[in-house]
Amino acid sequence: MLPCRRHLRPPPFVPALLLMLLAVAPMPSPAAAVGVTWGFASSHPLPAAQVVQGLLLPNSIPRIRLAAASSDALSALAGSGVAVTVGVPDALLRPLATSRKAAAAWVHDNITRYTSGVRFEYVLPFKQDFSIGHFISYIAVGEEPFLLSHGQHLQSFVVPAAENIQRALIDAKLSSKLKVVVPCSAETYQNASTLPSQASFRSDLNGTMVELLSFLANNSSPFMVELNPFLSFQQNKNLSLDYYLFQLMTHPVKDGQNKYDNYFDASIDALVCALTRAGFGDMDIIVGRAGWPTDGAVNATPAVAQSFMTGLVNHLDKKSGTPLRPKMPPIKTYLFSLLDEDQCSTASGGCERHYGIFTFDGQAKYHVNIGQGPKALKNALDVEYLPSKWCVVDNNKDLSNSSISSSFAAACSSGDCTALLPGGSCSGLGWLGNVSYAFNNYYQQHDQSEESCNFSGLVTSSSAPRPPSTMVAGFLPSAATMLLCLALLAAGVAVADELAPAPGPAAGIVPAPPPADELDREGSSQHCWEALMEIKSCTGEIIMFLLEGEAYLGGGCCRAVRLIEQRCWAADAMLSVIGFTPQEGDMLKGYCDAGQPLQQHGSEPPPPSSAADGGDAASAREMMMSAFGSLAGRKHGPVRG
Ligand SMILES: *[C@@H]1O[C@H](CO)[C@@H](O)[C@H](O)[C@H]1NC(C)=O
Ligand SMILES: *[C@@H]1O[C@H](CO)[C@@H](O)[C@H](O)[C@H]1NC(C)=O
Ligand SMILES: *[C@@H]1O[C@H](CO)[C@@H](O)[C@H](O)[C@H]1NC(C)=O
Ligand SMILES: *[C@@H]1O[C@H](CO)[C@@H](O)[C@H](O)[C@H]1NC(C)=O
Ligand SMILES: *[C@@H]1O[C@H](CO)[C@@H](O)[C@H](O)[C@H]1NC(C)=O
Ligand SMILES: *[C@@H]1O[C@H](CO)[C@@H](O)[C@H](O)[C@H]1NC(C)=O
Ligand SMILES: *[C@@H]1O[C@H](CO)[C@@H](O)[C@H](O)[C@H]1NC(C)=O
Ligand SMILES: *[C@@H]1O[C@H](CO)[C@@H](O)[C@H](O)[C@H]1NC(C)=O
Q1: How far are the Cα atoms of 281, 283, 521, 618 from residue 605, in angstroms, in the given order?
Q2: Catalytic option among 143, 144, 211, 548
Q3: H or E segment at 122?
Q4: Which atom of ligand 8 is nearest the CA belonging to 457?
Q5: What is the pLDDT of residue 195?
Q6: Poorest-confidence range of 60-69, 261-270, 421-430?
Q7: Is the pLDDT of residue 330 over 70?
Q8: Where are the beta strands (DSSP E) in 539-597?
Q9: Keyword tRNA-binding: yes or no (predicted)?
Q10: Does 422 sit in the ligand 7 pocket, CB within 6 Å?
Q11: 23 versus 627: which is more confidently predicted?
Q12: Ligand nearest to the CA of residue 124, numbered in listed order
């Protein structure tokens, strides 16, 4: 096999005058080569205008990759200056491949129409990658036969569709503005070995790849690769989490003379090797996807995701390139992704729905520089939520009926139960907790319609006496959904106390890099975690406070709120992660700050999360159980007389 050698691109000829001009020109943003992907598989999508005006522009996101040519998104992006990459849905692949007319119509309807306002960069004649063949089988558990045939079926249309779109772009005089690229997953070139030098394009893709590479080369288009580091981490048990999170490695992966201390560089160099073996070793590379999920699996948490994203962005900022392409990082890298999508396929795991840097309603889950620099991420403002109502299992009904299982399955197949999966934020709820979570999720996804809260008459909805005028339909009540999950979790912990050890910090979590003023506080993420555990123990009180209008929060509960404020490096983000809207977070903090003197924390160790043990624990749990009991058993309508 040919070795894949270090490749050095000759420096471009830059006239001295231009160099001088460049020297005085404003420094480009350090994250200039980074973009973010924006998908639309959401039951309650944030309106496109709010995404552009409230997230992309305030956070200075320089480029965006759209999953499809959404006219809402393209209209909202017009005049924004954000560079746009547009995807083409799989379903259009065949028509576009077989008809030049169809391709011309597609380009006209979805591109040309917007060119006066939108700054296009790339067109992808494919929404998803074509990682066809046997390698898909370990991703799509239980769905291989369909995906296999689907993939093989699409394979032959990819390059013809790309060619037809390219011709249409030339005819529309747009080919100098946009390039056609085809996203390919790392599975197209990385086989069982994790060593970059072993990589080559899969033999079952041989013909297609040769065609594709020659098409790309003829049009000076880059190769777009989609990386799934989380999936790779789950599959390669002998590669440490540090390797994926750009942490210092005491034992880097050795590959001949080259050493790799992170998965990202190794994947890029594997691609370089595969391209070299195929005769296209000079081809530019774009990373179309790189991200880390925050829920739905073990090690999928905001803290780990922040570690990955920050590591990636910092790594790209250094522009150090890889061992095979020193000083030549991928020409662009798209972070995956902007928002959570509760309707996207779970074929490669439940975590697939939790890749957002922001929650579905535009609230940042963690800190990363996506263009805004060292500042905190700006959240979407003026998000409208549904009323605070739930649909949960009625404890008074006979639950012995086996139909509850099929109801659960039905609710989950349409709703999103991925937070219940092992490692997920609502795992460990117990069976009834699971069922309530599923029913409630289904109910919220269906905009709280009466019909959607009816699974064999098992459930009841619980409404809070908030004035309806403050709530306009459109969004899930994020706090309500999450508080329900927390309430269920607390109830589950109380019941299964002996079995389930109190959760500690998840193994392998790298402490979130705290901002400068917090750097002195050693182990702050540990303390933050303990504070989060404490707040779980007062979920009932918080539900009463926020949703029932009770004007009282106990001292223990406020202490937990203040612990989060003091010990979590990004208290606001942390409160939003556990489900509070910014307004609700402010209400809690405002009440607690006003009510009780701040305790000195200094070097005093935080109260252990098991502080509630003993007498206190019993009463706290009782309170939780009764809070949850009343929540679950209540009939429609306001409860206060
Ligand atoms: C793009 O254009 C095609 C053909 O005119 C049209 O059918 C389709 O709905 C448009 N939008 C998207 C998102 O592809
Ligand atoms: C992986 O690719 C290398 C190089 O092409 C090859 O020698 C090896 O047999 C492949 N391994 C598997 C499991 O396909
Ligand atoms: C690329 O260009 C070469 C030479 O012009 C041509 O022979 C080949 O068919 C082209 N390939 C594709 C896929 O367009
Ligand atoms: C991981 O383990 C496999 C099988 O045990 C081995 O072939 C591979 O070289 C290992 N990879 C690394 C990076 O140690
Ligand atoms: C495809 O297969 C042929 C013969 O099996 C081989 O000569 C060629 O190098 C392969 N191309 C790639 C890109 O792997
Ligand atoms: C159990 O379910 C069956 C069918 O769904 C129904 O006919 C029966 O009345 C249910 N029994 C109870 C006790 O809910
Ligand atoms: C709750 O649901 C999750 C996801 O379906 C499952 O893994 C877990 O085992 C369930 N728990 C119980 C107690 O059934
Ligand atoms: C709820 O379910 C019961 C029993 O399946 C059915 O009779 C009733 O019509 C349903 N109500 C609604 C609003 O769908």
Answers
A1: 56, 55, 11, 24
A2: 144
A3: strand 119-124
A4: 2
A5: 92
A6: 421-430
A7: yes
A8: none
A9: no
A10: yes
A11: 23
A12: 1
β-bridge pairing 223-226 and 285-290? parallel
Q: Which bound ligand lies closest to the C-alpha atom of 394?
A: 6
Average pLDDT, the chain: 73
pLDDT at residue 397 tops 90: no
Ligand 8 cavity residues, CB under 6 Å: 450-451, 454, 456-457
pLDDT tens digits for 338-372? 999 998 888 778 888 999 999 988 989 999 999 99
The CA angle 171-176-177, to the nearest 5 degrees, is: 105
Tokens of 551: 């004007």
Q: Give which of 295, 383, 276, 287 is closest to 335, Cα–Cα.
A: 287
Looking at all shown ligands, the one closest to residue 101's CA atom is: 1
Q: Supply 52's token pair.
A: 């552009």
Please give the number of the atom of ligand 5 that sits closest to the Cα of 207. 1
Asked if the 28-354 domain carries CATH number 3.20.20.80, the reply is yes
Overall residue count recorded for the chain in this entry: 641
* pLDDT given at position 543: 63
| DSSP letter, residue 605 | P
With a CB cutoff of 8 Å and minimum separation 6, the contacts of 526 are 505, 511
Q: Which residue did the predictor score with more confidence, 235 or 23?
A: 235
d(CA 5, CA 637): 71
Is residue 365 within 8 Å of 359, Cβ to Cβ? yes
Residue spans of beta strands (DSSP E) within 464-510? none
**213 with 274: CB under 8 angstroms?**
no
Residue with tokens 């400068």: 516
Amino acid at 389: K
Report DSSP letters for 420-488, one per residue: GSTTSTTTT--HHHHHHHHHHHHHHHTTT-GGGS-STT-EEEEE----GGG--TTS--HHHHHHHHHHH
Residue 191 alpha carbon to ligand 2 centre in Å: 6
Q: Give 119 Cα–ligand 7 centroid separation in angstroms.
A: 46
CA 49 to chain centre: 20
CB 191 less than 6 A from any atom of ligand 2 = yes
218 lines ligand 3 (CB under 6 A): yes
Distance CA 461, CA 25 (A): 61
pLDDT score for 30? 44
Q: Residue 337, preceding bond cis, omega within 30 degrees?
A: yes
Neighbours of 95 (CB within 10 A): 16
Query: Who has greater pLDDT, 32 or 387?
Result: 387
* Domain boundary assignment for the chain: 28-354, 389-522, 530-633
Q: Quick check: is 163 catalytic?
A: no
pLDDT > 50? residue 23:
no
Beta carbons of 453 and 439 less than 8 angstroms apart: yes
Compute the average pLDDT of residues 317-321.
Answer: 94
Q: Please give the average per-residue pLDDT across 254-263, as a whole number.
A: 95
Give nearest CA residue, ligand 4 atom 6: 193
CA distance 65 to 56: 12
Q: How far apart are CA 573 and CA 368, in angstroms?
A: 12
Whole-structure pTM value: 0.74
Q: Give the helix/strand (H/E) hosting 226.
A: strand 223-226
Q: Specify burial of residue 633 (Cβ count, 10 A radius: 0-12, 13-18, 19+).
A: middle
Give me ligand 8 centre to Cα 626, in Å: 28
307 to 332, 348, 354, 400, 630: CA distances (angstroms): 20, 22, 16, 45, 40
Structure tokens at 253: 């992966």
pLDDT of residue 598: 36
